UniProtKB/TrEMBL annotation, chains A, B:
Protein name per UniProt: Aluminum-activated malate transporter 12-like
InterPro entries: ALMT
GO annotation, cellular component aspect: membrane
Keyword Transmembrane helix listed: yes
Membrane-spanning residues: 85-105, 112-128, 134-154, 166-184, 196-214
Keywords: Ion channel, Ion transport, Membrane, Transmembrane, Transmembrane helix, Transport
Source species of the chain: Solanum bulbocastanum
Amino acid sequence: MVVEMEVNNGENTTNNWVPIMKKLHMNVIGEKMKKFPKLTCRTIWRVGKEDPRRVIHSLKVGISLTLVSLLYLMDPLFKGFGSNAIWAVMTVVVVLEFTAGATLCKGLNRGLGTLLAGSLAFLIEYVATKTGHVFRAIFIGAALFFIGATATYMRFIPYIKKNYDYGVVIFLLTFNLITVSSYRVDNVLKIAHERFYTIAIGCGICLLMCLLIFPNWSGEDLHNFTAAKFEGLAKSIEACVNEYFSDDEQQKAKENSSDLEDPIYNGYKTVLDSKSFDETSALYASWEPRHSRHCYRFPWQQYVKLGNVLRHFGYTIVALHGCLQTEIQTPRSVRAMFKDPCIRLSGEVAKALKELGDSIRNRRHCSPEILSDHLHEALQDLNKAIKSQPKLFIGSKNNTNKLTLATVISKGQSCALNSRRVSLSSVKTDTSALLDWKSKLRGGSSTTHENLKLRPTLSKIAITSLEFSEALPFAAFASLLVEIVARLDLVIEEVEELGRIAHFEEYNDDEHVVEIDRKNSRPLPNQLPTQDSGD
Amino acid sequence: MVVEMEVNNGENTTNNWVPIMKKLHMNVIGEKMKKFPKLTCRTIWRVGKEDPRRVIHSLKVGISLTLVSLLYLMDPLFKGFGSNAIWAVMTVVVVLEFTAGATLCKGLNRGLGTLLAGSLAFLIEYVATKTGHVFRAIFIGAALFFIGATATYMRFIPYIKKNYDYGVVIFLLTFNLITVSSYRVDNVLKIAHERFYTIAIGCGICLLMCLLIFPNWSGEDLHNFTAAKFEGLAKSIEACVNEYFSDDEQQKAKENSSDLEDPIYNGYKTVLDSKSFDETSALYASWEPRHSRHCYRFPWQQYVKLGNVLRHFGYTIVALHGCLQTEIQTPRSVRAMFKDPCIRLSGEVAKALKELGDSIRNRRHCSPEILSDHLHEALQDLNKAIKSQPKLFIGSKNNTNKLTLATVISKGQSCALNSRRVSLSSVKTDTSALLDWKSKLRGGSSTTHENLKLRPTLSKIAITSLEFSEALPFAAFASLLVEIVARLDLVIEEVEELGRIAHFEEYNDDEHVVEIDRKNSRPLPNQLPTQDSGD
């Protein structure tokens, strides 16, 4: 790359750019092509390793297709169904989904759509047969237009879009097929019958495959995902607080690197992005039969509600994470004073979250000591630590006098030199920064573009040059931490509600005893769900 | 309801519950049935009123279906295509989507899938014809299994799932149809040809309808949605800060009511939930032709990036909103001291956000004075206001002595009595609350359920009983407000990047001149995109 650019470093550089770019482009493509097979193999391997059920599902689809094609391939069966057997193959391809709930939802939608469309088509056929040939064509055309437009419009209604979108498409498809065919074919009834039977066979094979052979339940996925979310949040909080108090400069470099490998970000990311997965899984789960031992209705609505509460809990963690990346930072020496109580508090919150996650995973009520004394002691300690440093929260009294701040900082061992931003603010007083900023802004409209590029940095200077009490960001951090403890209550409430509705096991101190007793345990008769799940 | 319950208030109440519940249930259903037609009509009307393009799209689908059915209904056309004309009808039903991008994506996927499947099926047909009848059936079955399992597994690969999921389904469908049919029918080539032609005709009608007649562009939707997000965020911030400083008790009641009508919540909700819409729209927009006047590539990736930054901006607003709902509140009297600078700052931020939204909506660069002097002045004022109240951030020095706090509060006119929570904390000292909490917790394992219900409230008491400096929550509020200003920079950066990539108009002070000049204006040649949009 560099060589090529140097060779062409003579005149006419702009014209030479194009072939160079092309060459570079070709090189890049060439390299990509070389890497492609290796990358593909790795991706294919990883997809299977992440979730081995995917491999099983693929094999299930293969087996179902082979089974259903027997209808066409084996002579005795072909005589029964004829060429319409092809519809069974189509049904299997379209309906067999990864989880039982999704398959049921699609299969029943397909069945319902076909039935409704068939009935309506026959009604229209009944009216149309009484008219002449040309009129009949016009009548069919008008019916297609009217039903097509109505059905499409129906798909925009939120309730139908959510539950029956696929059903409406199939309704439209079948209706059109039957109505149009009826113009040329006489025995439409036979076609419709055969189509219905073969679709039923296809759906039957799909249901057999998805319900009886290594079934994947959407409800189960949602359940495990919910439990995993708690662990992610717990890790996130712990990592966030640890990083805030770490005096390692490496940590700072890590902050600036991409968010992708950040353990804090990874912890809450899944929670923040969980909305659509939660809702889709809950929708499919609502179609699933009561597959658990106790045959309770799967409380999918409560899982969605818990997901919402967890997302809101996650937003507070994002704000806490924001304290690590903000422009105005409390010096590390000041932070160090509050290190122990904060880390202890975050540890207790993380412990509570992990306990909640475990309780959901094991389908038992959470420990009554989940809001442990330790949590409250940690809160008290933080309280005491903050009160023991009253001077911290006083800013410098005027712009020139930095003594108060300086004394506070010198109290800790290392000083403001550690913090790039603090030194910046001491070099540029706010007035000079603002003046600089204004003069650069007024530089002229011809160089607007450069100004636009410069501005963000300038505004950062303007913010850092403000002499907010430097303990203010720490106050925000501490306040958010306390807020997290307060929000933990809401989460616990929802988890308990879930426990009640889903008839979780009672909490037992000795986990192993619970494991053994689980098979015989029944819920107490007075433990009726306090809230009906929105019948 | 009440009457029935009282009548049955004798013995055996538990058994009588069931019929009562059933009656109530029937009544509820009856009422629902009565309301149903009215509700349905209203919903149907609202769906159309919200977005009149939906009505147009429905009519377009109706017209397309009628057009395509002519292939079957009109004698000369039917002679050309025969009964395979039905595939064209199916294609229209399945492919014609609301936006041009979605239709193109599905249409091209369908075309590509059909072509690939056809080629592969002929290869297999070529091998299979050389074997005997029985062997051929086994060979076909094996091919179905192998290709079915492989294609299904492919759908789990993220890249394929995102871009070609529908194409793989159609590939599998067509492959199975041709391969299975080839066992009984001799001229498979003719079937495949006809199927391909009719699908092409169906796709052609769809493209005609979606590209030429009242086209809806996904890119346009994404563009308008992005601009609307800015307005939502601006409203949210203003409403949030106004509510924080309003001394109206009504506001407090509103806080406790459901989140649904809350203007703050509504403002940022769309932004937080925008992820899946953004990504889907961007995906479809990437398939759309360069429909703008200048024929630039639609910078869909930049819109997704901007959406991510806006979501992160939104999280900070959620945290700010959390300050309104938190357990420990700074007394309103104390807050009032900082009312003006905070409201001014939020007003400036909202103004900047609205300007950004306007600039995107009108496809022009944003005003170079977007980070106005006013914003910096407001920041300075807040800074001064906080520094002028140094005592505020000092908590009481020990548990019994509340004098410092009291003096601070008495400084403002109204006192802690206003705040329910503060009075609570003064009634229960933290030690007594903790003791209470412990004794209730230890009450015995038989009443675990009651304990579980009581706990959250107890933990709230434990938190409020902590004597954190009551200015701490305000410090968090102020810090988050400053954080929002800092994050505004990131947003501005992304908007400018978008402006560069999408070749927005230059900013012009006199908006009307720009409007008139727009037709003749061309981007300057040196304004090449600084970043290639991920070729």
